[in-house]
Specification:
- It contains 21 helices and no strands.
- The protein is mainly α.
- Helix 1 (3-24) packs across helix 5.
């Protein structure tokens, strides 16, 4: 993949987004801004594509298939991927709204409002995916009335959003910054309709049910996590696995390859015997563990983990009043490559399998000991799941008499292993499913 090829595929995806914009996003000043932001009128349109995640999605799409198909087939696959990639651009918006909801903060006056908004949005999404039309989806009116949140402040790239908006306002003096900054409703509406468009794009495919049900489980699981209901660690892992989008998104990517661009014999068998779903679910769980703990932390050896935990305990003894949050935050500089994802979720108050339910334990030593047990559990699960995935992928290869599907699923996990070894503050660690 060279720069010219990437730019061509990015341009193709941007054109697809622009074509669908008026159908997916309600008429609003923000829709006009969004159209401008991706157009040639914006001299920084490539920066905006990076800010919204579109560039990373096109890179992922091309890397996913690279080496398995011809350049002509890659072009066809990128075209077929446009609906799912548009959806993922808008889905970043609802992900951003959830920033800070994993770790309640008394300094966040909009916490309850965002929690209510996200729960309502999840319910509306589920209803829409189950067949409720826009006209009959009563939750949408509720969303319109409560969607008054700064989408610039509630993002991982606040400065870039303000910069793009201010550039636009120089040429559109009748538009106010507030109309762009608080455009929660049009963005969530586009998020919802782009999801439906992605589902409908594969409606005739054998992976259609996996895609639709995967989306439904995603929004159900996100609601469960937001509700704060007590869950065992195993339940938290399972719910968290469904809460990320690996299963529906990569079922889509595999479906367009194996059913449309290069049909594979016996494809129906891996659908019917659930081996494709099982492989994607295991991959999703691996990626969830990587997402929350980071590659180096989840793959530590026993000796390395013991050394790390001992250092945390030494720090706790030095400051008996420090809680787990303070100790972890104080360790990031010294263990930066080990705590890439811990750093991210502490900084943004996001749900994390490793520690979010341990932060209020009064005794820092007890919290560290429970954190250690959490690491042992997750590392063991990661190792066991790697072996399980290998076995399921061998089964899929045998049934299909072709290894491409298995190699692509392996590549999905490897892609995230590399990415989550980097800090979220670096471009290499920005994108996440």
């Amino acid at each position: 993949m060279n720069v010219v090829e990437l730019q061509a595929m990015l341009d193709k995806t941007v054109n697809g987004l622009m074509t669908q914009l008026s159908d997916q996003m309600p008429e609003s000043p923000y829709r006009d801004f969004y159209h401008w932001s991706f157009s040639a009128a914006n001299s920084n349109s490539n920066d905006w594509a990076q800010t919204t995640g579109l560039t990373q999605l096109v890179v992922l799409t091309m890397k996913l298939y690279q080496g398995f198909v011809s350049s002509h087939e890659v072009e066809d696959l990128v075209t077929l991927s446009i609906p799912i990639n548009i959806y993922q651009v808008y889905e970043i918006v609802s992900d951003n709204l959830a920033i800070g909801l994993g770790i309640p903060s008394p300094h966040d006056p909009a916490f309850s409002a965002r929690q209510n908004l996200m729960q309502t949005f999840n319910q509306a999404m589920i209803a829409r995916l189950q067949g409720t039309s826009l006209a009959n989806n009563r939750k949408l009116d509720v969303i319109k009335n409560i969607a008054d949140i700064s989408m610039f402040a509630q993002s991982l790239s606040t400065t870039k959003h303000y910069a793009a908006a201010n550039q636009y306002l120089k040429h559109h003096p009748l538009v106010t910054i507030g109309q762009l900054e608080y455009a929660t409703w049009p963005l969530l509406a586009a998020n919802m309709e782009s999801c439906i468009d992605a589902v409908e794009a594969v409606a005739g495919y054998q992976v259609a049910a996996i895609v639709r049900e995967g989306f439904i489980r995603r929004y159900e699981s996100t609601s469960t996590l937001l509700s704060g209901v007590p869950l065992t660690l195993q339940q938290r892992v399972e719910v968290s696995t469904h809460a990320i989008l690996v299963v529906p998104i990569f079922a889509y990517y595999l479906g367009i390859l194996c059913e449309k661009v290069r049909p594979v014999a016996n494809w129906s068998q891996v659908i019917e015997n659930n081996s494709l779903y099982n492989a994607l679910y295991i991959a999703a769980q691996l990626i969830r563990l990587l997402n929350d703990l980071g590659t180096k932390l989840v793959t530590q050896s026993t000796d390395q983990r013991q050394t790390f935990i001992q250092e945390l305990k030494i720090r706790a003894h030095r400051d008996p009043n420090a809680g787990l949050r303070s100790i972890l935050q104080g360790s990031i500089t010294d263990f930066d490559m080990l705590l890439t994802r811990i750093d991210k979720d502490l900084a943004h108050g996001e749900f994390n399998l490793g520690f979010t339910d341990l932060l209020n334990i009064p005794s820092s030593i007890e919290a560290i000991e429970q954190f250690e047990q959490r690491l042992i559990f997750c590392s063991t699960l990661y190792r066991n799941n790697k072996a399980r995935l290998t076995a399921v992928l061998e089964e899929i290869t045998d049934v299909l008499e072709d290894s491409t599907t298995s190699k692509i699923i392996s590549r999905i996990v490897e892609f995230h292993e590399v990415m989550y070894a980097y800090s979220f503050r670096e471009a290499e660690g920005e994108y996440a499913v």
